[in-house]
Design a protein that fits this description.
The complex is a heterodimer of chains A (421) and B (312).
Chain A: H1 2-16, E1 33-39, H2 44-60, E2 64-70, H3 73-86, E3 91-95, H4 101-105, H5 113-116, H6 119-123, H7 125-128, E4 132-133, E5 136-137, E6 140-144, E7 147-152, H8 153-158, H9 167-179, E8 183-186, H10 193-207, H11 209-216, H12 225-240, H13 256-260, E9 264-270, H14 274-279, E10 287-290, E11 302-304, E12 307-311, H15 319-330, H16 332-338, H17 359-370, E13 375-377, H18 380-383, H19 386-401, H20 406-420
Helix pairs in contact in A: 10-11, 10-12, 10-19, 19-20
Chain B: H1 21-56, E1 59-60, E2 68-69, H2 73-79, H3 82-98, H4 101-112, H5 119-131, H6 134-145, H7 151-158, H8 173-198, H9 202-210, H10 215-226, H11 228-243, H12 247-252, H13 264-272, H14 280-311
Helix pairs in contact in B: 1-14, 3-8, 3-11, 4-8, 5-8, 6-8, 8-11, 11-14, 13-14
The chains are: A alpha/beta (421), B mainly alpha (312).
Main location (chain A): periplasm
Pfam family, one (chain A): SBP_bac_1
Keywords (chain A): Plasmid, Signal
């Protein structure tokens, strides 16, 4: 197998620094000096993954002195501005899509299009669009994950329900659950973005991927009738009482117990919700994954799959080594390794990697690679500019509590759109 | 330091003509030398940033790229910004209700100003909330208010009142956070009054008693006038505390639901510095407005202090 062959070569190169075959291009010369990496992979599992990657990369380049600084994931989001301007590392974590735009526009991220020429564009085709702004690539992805409806299979079975295939079935399922005193969906909107997940899916299912992208790019008015249709669909669920009460008081983690205790039957969430649900005692027999069903049969299905990335700040000192590291991160064997269940437990970005043997990863991979013909979106707050995302997500939350305020909310969003874009 | 060797030569008499520049100006310069570090740091960390904020508020700037001069447009936008008025309204509610800490602190101080066994323990227990971090206060109160398992709703249940989602309901949220803030602030005012009560002149109380004053009249006419310095300090710290109410909001609601619990300082942070905030200019404009509000109070405090000093 190609992977084994290359892994063996890597082992050889480790000791002898041979420059042959597939490794020739990336390891032509021995890398020296310092490589400073700032990372937001601060949770225990990602941190171990990051440290493992650096160990392996360090073994391949013994003369390179790698310095890793891990910053708390939330704090990183505000600190990145300071260190990119004042004290840029050679490699930094960030997110794909429009989230890169402020730094790209300010010239703080290095254009790495040359890295993408050839093999990489083929192997990373699924995420290339998300890394592209102004026709150039500004970094590389290292992991992504699917969103979808995670539901309690046992509760569905108990009430004779099946995975919803279309919008009507989703609503009739929901009505059955409500009649039995169970909420259809849990959600915690205290930090707003969870509501944006709902908007993404409802809008992509109602109006399609292209419309959704045009909306987040500021090309469509928020007061457009098509947007109102999305909210009308959403209102159907809200008025049924499909969501748990008092969701404004909870974070996404605080909303998990409702599903664990069986007070709510499903959760529209990213794949990262699986780990805490398992830890809380749900087995894979109790837990199922369903793709969000079609609403408007005329639009192609599209999915959210947020991508996490590595970038080279334009102020980096050792760009040579940084590029080699980015290449190493996206290589097929490294992708298989770091995204496995004992690592990040997410989807590899390289098409030549293998997906870990996990029910949800396999289903998610299936959904994204063959059942998302419309396109793959990042996530509302990564597709829309930061300011618009903030204002809009507040509107979504308000709408979920007071659906009657819709017109006022949309007017506000439209005013914001005119100001921001 | 080694002691100076005893000088053998007779010292020249210090005639006025031969005094050094330092010797002549020592008296005038010394105070400024002592003040210099303070002035320097105050200028670098307070005065200059104030003017910088004024300046930045005239630009459209994301904190990264080039700043674009927009004149007063940030202020014009603020004029039409609903979120700004929500924050301003909440700031006023904070200012008014936070002052409740003063009478509450006084009441507790009067209650604790007695000698019974273990009074020191009671005093420390009452003072305890001021010692713990605001973050902890915020967390404790968010659990207290939690709509599913919070103690508040359990207690309301005893009286048959329905569960209320204090922090998730835009009508209650600001009051809920202020109640949390009053807990440590009351303790602070209490300690100020307890020290004040120590200094109350027993002879005046004695004289009041002879004139048949007791209860509320005693408090109002004899005790309170003597507590004026304590009241003044309590007023100052409470007003400033109300205007700085940032940490509790950040911990308990992050400004939500849909921005209804924001105050100006939190809104400024959100607009300029938070995850989604890239508008340094607009943030600075909010900061300027907040500064002007504070300036009113500061002027009042300085003026009344000045009057006090002159009155002596």
């Amino acid at each position: 197998m190609a992977i084994h062959h290359r892994a063996a070569l890597a082992a050889l190169a480790m000791s002898t620094l041979l420059s042959t075959g597939a490794l020739a291009e990336s390891h032509e010369m021995a890398l020296t000096g310092d490589l400073k990496i700032f990372s937001d992979m601060s949770n225990p599992a990602p941190r171990a993954v990051m440290e493992g990657m650096i160990d392996r990369f360090g073994e391949m380049h013994p003369d390179l002195n790698i310095e890793l600084t891990v910053i708390d994931r939330e704090a990183y989001k505000t600190q990145i501005r300071n260190f990119l301007t004042a004290n840029p590392p050679d490699v930094a974590n960030w997110y794909a899509g429009n989230r890169m735009a402020p730094y790209v526009d300010a010239g703080l991220f290095e254009d790495v299009s040359d890295l993408w020429e050839g093999d990489m564009s083929e192997q990373l085709a699924s995420t290339k669009g998300a890394m592209t702004l102004d026709g150039k690539q500004w970094g590389v992805p290292y992991t992504y994950y699917q969103w979808g409806i995670y539901y309690r299979e046992d509760i569905y079975a108990e009430h004779g329900l099946e995975e919803p295939q279309d919008w009507d079935q989703l609503k009739s399922n929901c009505q059955t659950l409500l009649d039995n005193g169970i909420k259809c969906f849990t959600i915690g909107t205290k930090f707003l973005w969870t509501a944006a997940g709902w908007f993404d899916y409802l809008n992509m299912r109602t109006n399609g991927y292209d419309f959704h992208m045009a909306l987040t790019a500021g090309e469509v008015e928020w007061t457009d009738d098509r947007v109102k249709q999305t909210f009308a669909n959403w209102a159907e669920l809200i008025e049924m009482g499909a969501f748990i009460d008092n969701h404004t008081a909870y974070s996404w983690q605080e909303a998990l117990p409702f599903m664990v205790n069986g007070e709510a039957a499903a959760y529209l969430m990213g794949n990262f919700a699986v780990a805490p649900l398992r830890e809380a005692g749900l087995t894979d027999d109790q837990l199922g994954y369903a793709q969000f069903p079609a609403i408007n049969p005329d639009v192609a299905l599209a999915e959210d799959a947020p991508t996490d990335t590595f970038h080279i700040p334009s102020g980096a000192e050792n760009k040579e080594a940084a590029k080699a590291f980015l290449k190493f991160v996206t290589s097929a064997e490294n992708q298989t390794l770091i995204n496995a269940g004992d690592g990040l437990g997410q989807l590899p970005v390289n098409a030549n990697s293998s997906v870990d043997d996990d029910e949800f990863l396999k289903e998610g991979f299936e959904t994204l690679s063959s059942n998302s013909p419309g396109g793959v979106a990042q996530f509302f707050d990564r597709d829309a500019p930061a300011e618009m995302a903030k204002v809009a997500m507040e509107g979504f939350q308000e709408f979920m509590v007071k659906p009657d305020n819709l017109d006022r909310i949309l007017d506000r969003l439209e005013r914001a759109r005119q100001r921001i874009y | 330091m080694a002691p100076l060797p005893p000088s053998t030569a007779p010292r020249p008499a210090p005639g006025p003509a031969r005094r050094s520049w330092w010797g002549r100006n020592q008296i005038a310069i010394t105070p400024w030398l002592f003040l210099a570090p303070g002035i320097l740091f105050f200028a670098v960390y307070v005065l200059i940033p104030v003017f910088q904020s004024f300046n930045v508020s005239l630009y459209d700037w994301d904190g990264l790229g080039a700043a674009e001069y927009v004149g007063l447009r940030n202020y014009e936008e603020m004029y039409y910004d609903d979120a700004f008025y929500t924050s301003l309204r909440n700031n006023l509610i904070w200012l008014v209700l936070y002052l409740l800490a003063i009478p509450m602190g006084l009441a507790i101080a009067l209650f604790l100003n007695q000698t019974v066994t273990g009074i020191r323990i009671y005093k420390s227990l009452f003072f305890f909330p001021f010692v713990i971090s605001q973050v902890v206060v915020g967390l404790v109160f968010s659990w207290f208010y939690d709509p599913s398992f919070g103690l508040l709703n359990v207690m309301l249940g005893w009286f048959g009142a329905g569960p209320i989602n204090v922090l998730g309901d835009e009508r209650w949220v600001t009051y809920g956070i202020i109640a949390a803030g009053l807990w440590p602030q009351t303790a602070y005012c209490m300690i100020l009054y307890l020290t004040g009560l120590n200094a109350v002149d027993p002879e005046q109380i004695e004289a009041g008693r002879l004139d048949n004053a007791k209860g509320f009249r005693m408090l109002w006419h004899i005790i309170l006038p003597q507590l004026r310095p304590a009241t003044f300090i309590a007023f100052v710290v409470t007003i400033i505390g109300a205007l700085r109410s940032f940490d509790l909001i950040s911990i308990m609601t992050a400004g939500g639901p849909f921005g209804e619990s924001r105050v100006l300082s939190f809104y400024m942070f959100e607009v300029a510095l938070s995850e989604y905030g890239f508008r340094m200019g607009y943030g600075a404009a909010i900061a300027v407005v907040l500064f002007l509000i504070m300036l009113c109070f500061i002027t009042y405090f300085l003026w009344s202090m000045y009057r006090e000093e002159r009155g002596r």
